[in-house]
Amino acid sequence: MVRDEAAIVQTFRNYVRSFQSLEPRALVPYFHLPCLFISDQGVRVMANAGELQAFIAQLMENLKARGFARSEVADMRVSRMSENIALVSVRRIRHKTDGSELERLGETYTLRKIDDDWKLSAAMVHDPDVILQTA
């Protein structure tokens, strides 16, 4: 169980590092398809890699237009829900190219273990002050 929790954390850290590249293709391997994105703007289901890549590209273009340079995970909580399902809840701080803060947000992800790899299957963006607590 502890080894799996370390694998979950590492998968998420690798995902965050890949996001910094602002290359949509780099993120697709971290997801289990179909996948789900939930935010205040609505719910979006990506059925295949092309849809996911297009969605991520749109998100990244929006961030670039706002001056995004990097993000920092300020807090991370991992909750194992079963042998093959886990939740990762984080507080993220995004920074602009000039070093100033762009925004703070909360994110909660559902990960599923598939063939010994942890994959993101759902992502929810929410208020930064609300992240899941671990037992």
Structural descriptors:
135 residues, alpha+beta, 6-stranded mixed β-sheet, 2 helices
Radius of gyration computed on alpha carbons: 14 Å
Number of helices: 2
Low-confidence stretches: none
**What is the structural class?**
alpha+beta
What is the overall pLDDT average?
A: 92
> What separation lies between the terminal Cα atoms?
15 Å
Q: Based on DSSP secondary structure assignment, what is the total number of beta strands? A: 6
Overall geometry: globular
Going across the major beta sheet, what is the strand order?
Answer: 2-1-6-5-4-3
Task: Give the DSSP E fraction (strand runs of 2 or more residues).
Answer: over 45%
Q: Give the ordered list of helices and strands.
A: HEEHEEEE
Kindly state the percentage of residues in helix: 25-40%
Main beta sheet: strand number and arrangement? 6 strands, mixed
Layout of secondary structure:
Elements (H helix, E strand, L loop, with lengths): L1 H18 L11 E9 L2 E5 L2 H17 L2 E15 L2 E12 L4 E14 L2 E10 L9
Give an overview of the whole structure.
The two termini are 15 Å apart. The protein has helices spanning 2-19, 49-65, and strands at 31-39, 42-46, 68-82, 85-96, 101-114, 117-126. The chain contains two helices and six strands. Strands 2-1-6-5-4-3 form a six-stranded mixed sheet. The protein is globular, with a radius of gyration of 14 Å. It is 26% helix and 48% strand. By secondary structure, the chain is of the alpha+beta class.
